[in-house]
């Protein structure tokens, strides 16, 4: 208050109301809300209040007397209203001496949070058996909480003094912290009261019943009291407090609208208020008064979750910045005098006394627009939260303010497609044409636009059934949509609408809980059948590694969900080299061999083929080392919680698992009379059957179906297999068999079109233009990414394109190899070119390689080099292309590792690389012995000087410096392992692997590679945005 004297007329002038009577004056504001009351002393009314610096704070620091009872009920963290009335009547605390006697309406939050069954006990008498503080303390552990608190905690330990009923609560992360917390409590209370704890009562939890805890209590002479088995009511004081506390926490969270992660803050606030409330056995005294001997004050109580204005010190602001920042009240300071306030903009909780709390305003509603309705009564607290995993040290990081999400402004539409006859749903944000068709897309949109993500407000289940009337919506969606939208409708909705669970707890909250449970039980039954482990006592001085569940949904070649899979994976990163594992190398087949086998065996010789999948293949591998594993999450054996598994077989995640499985498979196949090829570790032959192995995928090629069936039966007698029929989809590549056999990656490209559907679109007809000037490579530390580049990372795009270029797309091989050289030093101009290449792939996704266009067994290799094409370091580019018959099955474009001093030298280096590859393929084919004649590769080069140098051992001042390792090609020619011939540059098919070509030259190459006519069809368009020309993205 600013003045010593207050004029009554002035109070009336400003619009306030005054009531006189019985030596008392009561002041109300303009809304007839109580402000304060004063008593008459002689001829003056004396105000017994507290002076404050700001007049606006006067109402907050005034006495609570004559306030409404429901207002005080909320300040006291929703404790029982009769208890508050009793405290006011008995004058148990300072600050609530005069309460309104008006009727109190039932508190909705309490009814929701504290609902119970009807009691069956009648006339129960409560009594206190102790005579002084610390005669007995009651302990209990609550948890784990369904969500982690903002400090990363999941449990709390409650310790209650029997005589005073004062409660101390410790928020902890794990059960093993209970003992340390009790020791802290023991030191604190014995110093406060100068007395000793005589007895401790708890349940039979292992956190209380272990030797270290028992020896500690015995040494101090503290009596241990435990409950009988399955009789928790004997520890009823602690159990009842836990229930009462969580009832209060639920009510406070529901009232405030705060997220579930604030349960620990609400609990500490509730305990602070509970210790200042009467108890049935301590009335009219409060626990704090019995404990300390002083009557507590509650004048500092404020409503949990109220809007708070935190003062900013002068040091942290300039003269033009505001003096306060907004926050939400979440409790009272633990170590200082003040309040705890959560700052959403900074995502941290601070303690300060310089704060103004506006109890008339809810913090969540004021800052975010609406209260979030969580099911606190059931503790279904599984909402998505970006900051859930942050601990105290990380909460100091500043984050952008999230704006509220108002679902009423969003447009929800249901549509259908005649082909599928299913209803689909999408949401459109306000003032945007973006269509969001899954929670994944909504989450990304909210994150990009800095909005709060509230999944409970979105419903992607159609509310109407398909009918002919829905055809209009289908047409509307087609006209509004685009190519990528259509792809998403047909195959993306089922695959990407639901998220894969990351932990066991996520599966228990998933709508597909039964499917995931079945998948996990199936995995454990598989391990039991194969005798993967045995349960043993944990050994001393041995590394015991953990495990986790990895979940996935398998899809068929059309991207439809086929099977829910749960894999138990060991945390192998905790293994120690030389102790827990030795050698780890495990071979896999080169995919070029897979393509060659299809060309030679299926297209040329007409063999049959079938694909097999080994179930849980790694579980067959035998371990030579002793590896101990913790019991898997969610499946801990009862009465054997402390035991661990000793592994006899390999488990996914171990360093040596791949090698163990490969050795076991090699042993099995050799016992079945299969011979492994000398020139390929993953090819096996047995009479008229050839096996190709890629980890747990086995492709069986046979002359006859009868031979294949016998082979499958033999392997089935040793391994648990799944027969998938003829190969249709293998390692990201589609094999399509109509009249001819085609190979393509349309399925994979369509996945990329969904993943990168917001990528800028461009009208490009070539992967890279002739004459394109690339900026120089920069240092990695100087890379600057704008928002668009961060959304679609350079290396991610290069990785996807490299996979395509290696398997089925030789037309982009040169451009991808060129741009990959800038992966650790790119600019925006480089990124634009990579985007153009991706758009070119989207445009040509339907192109296929015809594997049936083979009429002979000639192995031909085309090789070429572009001398000194790199203007920065003057390195040359090599390229080769190998055909079997007329079908191209392998190719490569690469930067040479040395600097060539002439075009002859660069061509010679390229010849050596192509010769190594060609000889290897010929040796593999010859070892299979499927042709009567020996296959000798024919290498075609358009540089006569290089050919002459290969065939003649000439040395002069121009050739002496050439590395000896390249001269092995002469030995290959002398041994007649290769045939080296000249070809005109115009006819050299590998020319496009070393340099960009003009459109007409690229068209000629395109006809040979894909056996189809190259057309400059319209640009790929993923949405309604206009397309740009190639390399015209604005920064």
UniProtKB/TrEMBL annotation:
It comes from Araneus ventricosus (Orbweaver spider). Keywords: Hydrolase, Metal-binding. GO terms for biological process: DNA biosynthetic process; DNA integration. InterPro entries: DNA-bd_dom_sf (IPR016177), DNA/RNA_pol_sf (IPR043502), Integrase_cat-core (IPR001584), Retrotran_Ty1/copia-like (IPR039537), RNaseH-like_sf (IPR012337), RNaseH_sf (IPR036397), RVT_2 (IPR013103), SH3_retrovirus (IPR057670). GO terms for molecular function: DNA binding; hydrolase activity; metal ion binding. Residues 128-295 form the Integrase catalytic domain. One of its GO terms (cellular component) is DNA polymerase complex. This is Copia protein.
